[in-house]
Amino acid sequence: MEEVMNIAPFDISVKFEDVPDRRGNSRFPVREEVRYRVLHSKSAPMIGAGKTLNISSRGILFTTEERLPMGRLVELSVDWPARLGGTCLLQFVAVGRVIRAENSRAAVRIERYEFKTRRTAQ
Hints:
By secondary structure, this protein is an all-beta fold. It is built from no helices and six strands. It has one domain (about 25-115): predicted glycosyltransferase like domains (Thrombin, subunit H, Beta Barrel). The chain has strands spanning about 35-40, 45-55, 60-65, 75-85, 90-100, 105-115. The radius of gyration is 19 Å and the shape is globular.
């Protein structure tokens, strides 16, 4: 007698927390303000602010004000929590591609980055 398997419809939407971690790079739970700007936007400039959730040497996960477009280049700016020489404030500036996006957060694969010095608050 042949057995028939009944397959019910399923939801194929995937949330960040449902995706298994396959990265080889350690992620650090850095929680700092982030400013972002979608580069080469043909429509109105897409800019916003959020909070970093974690950072690794190859990527950054952060909250967003709106859903960022998949595959687009984004410039990120984060006030870095550590100081150069214990006194000089730093800013982490990175450019990367959006590899995952939801309405309120995005993951960007970092393509290049630099640290800049920043002014102290007046």
